[in-house]
Design a protein that fits this description.
This protein is α/β, with parallel strands linked by helices. It is built from 12 helices and 13 strands. The strands form 4 sheets. Strands 3-2-1-4-5-6-11 form a 7-stranded parallel sheet, sandwiched between helices. The chain has a two-stranded parallel sheet with strand order 7-10. The protein has a two-stranded parallel sheet with strand order 8-13. Bound molecules: nicotinamide-adenine-dinucleotide.
């Protein structure tokens, strides 16, 4: 199978490529990435079977370029997106371009060329839930510009399936953590700041709840959906591990043997969702998917990975960068 992966220099896409080339002999991958700020070719240093891997720099919203690339593949797995909520609060425009225009460009082309598209979406489309969990039929209620662009892409994809019979599958996942995540996100940021004995900023009271999933478990689920996902369907992928931010940070400090005095509460993010929660019974029942790493194991593996990368640990600038949404004030 010839797979076109977009955004494969980023966190989840690179983990997906490494894993798939390692476990599948009959797969070749072309990775398209625009090399935006969080991308890193070093994420793919450990690639196995490089003869089945090809990188092409390009933007998924470039129609002509994408037509040529999609022509050569069987299926597109679309990871490419602007992914940081804070940045979307500061300036939503790049999110509209990558997350809506980019996804639509792929959608339109796969429809005309009769290919398949797997869209990697997020639990954030359901917005904040004070109680209960969202299943595949729950109503969208996104709060941030980021989440709204991901929801918009989903709506377009569904409408194309209904109108043109486009071969599309949507996956929605909870918060990922693990190796190769860019340092602006909570877990790697905390690891790097703690390693350097720097203050760790925590939004509001730190009680915001996320359901943390180890990135390998997410990639495993996408692989199953790639093989077995039904056209026009969506699949939620969650970890049953709802934990608030302050607990996550304290666990990291405990594992790294650092003082909780490093924690510093800062002004909350505007519109900060309190809790995300999804039910992943569908993928568990249909495809026998289960996560392999519990949170403690996954966190330990993640910390060990960063601790073995001095070039990342000692480059504080990405972890220290001021909160982007504040720059707009
Ligand atoms: N990180 C999470 O916790 C999480 C959870 C659920 C869903 N997702 C989704 O998974 C996908 C990947 O997330 P991530 O955390 O790996 O993001 P990331 O920011 O680490 O990587 C995104 C990659 O996409 C590339 N990119 C962005 N816009 C592009 C464009 N227009 N054309 C080509 N390349 C472009 C970037 O250069 C980068 O390499 C996103 O679609 C995100 O919405 C992420």
């Amino acid at each position: 199978m010839k797979i076109l992966v977009t955004g494969g220099l980023g966190f989840i896409g690179s983990n997906f490529i490494l894993r798939l080339l390692d476990i599948s002999n009959d797969v070749s991958i072309t990775n398209i990435d625009a090399e935006l700020y969080g991308s890193d070719h070093k994420n793919l240093n450990e690639i196995k079977n490089p003869e089945r891997y090809n990188f092409v720099k390009g933007n998924i919203s470039n129609k002509k370029f994408m037509e040529e690339q999609i022509e050569k593949c069987d299926v597109v797995v679309n990871f490419a997106a602007e992914s940081h909520v804070d940045r979307s609060i500061h300036d939503a425009n790049p999110f509209l371009i990558s997350n809506i225009r980019g996804a639509f460009t792929i959608l339109d082309i796969i429809t005309k060329q009769q290919k398949r598209m797997i869209q990697i979406s997020t639990d954030e489309v359901f917005g904040s839930l004070s109680t209960g969990t969202a299943d595949e039929n729950s109503k969208f209620n996104p709060s941030s510009p980021y989440a709204s662009t991901k929801a918009a892409a989903e709506l377009l994809i569904n409408s194309y399936h209904v109108t043109y019979g486009s071969d599309v599958v949507i996956t929605r996942c909870t918060n990922n953590y693990g190796p190769r995540q860019f340092l602006e996100k909570l877990i790697p940021k905390t690891i790097v700041l703690a390693h350097n004995n720097k203050k760790i900023p925590v939004y509001g009271n730190g009680k915001n709840i996320r359901d943390w999933i180890f990135v390998e478990d997410h990639c495993n689920a996408i692989d199953l959906i790639l093989q077995k996902g039904k056209s026009g369907e969506s699949y939620n992928i969650s970890a049953n591990n709802e934990t608030n931010n302050i607990t996550v940070i304290k666990k990291i400090l405990e594992i790294m043997n650092k003082s909780e005095d490093l924690i510093e509460f800062v002004e909350d993010r505007p519109g900060h969702d309190l809790r995300y929660s999804m039910d992943s019974t569908k993928i568990t029942k249909n495809f026998n998917w289960t996560q392999k790493s519990n949170f403690e194991e996954g966190l330990l593996k993640t910390i060990q990975w960063y601790e073995n990368k001095p070039e990342i640990l000692n480059n504080l600038s990405n972890a220290l960068e001021s909160t982007p949404w504040k720059n707009s004030n």
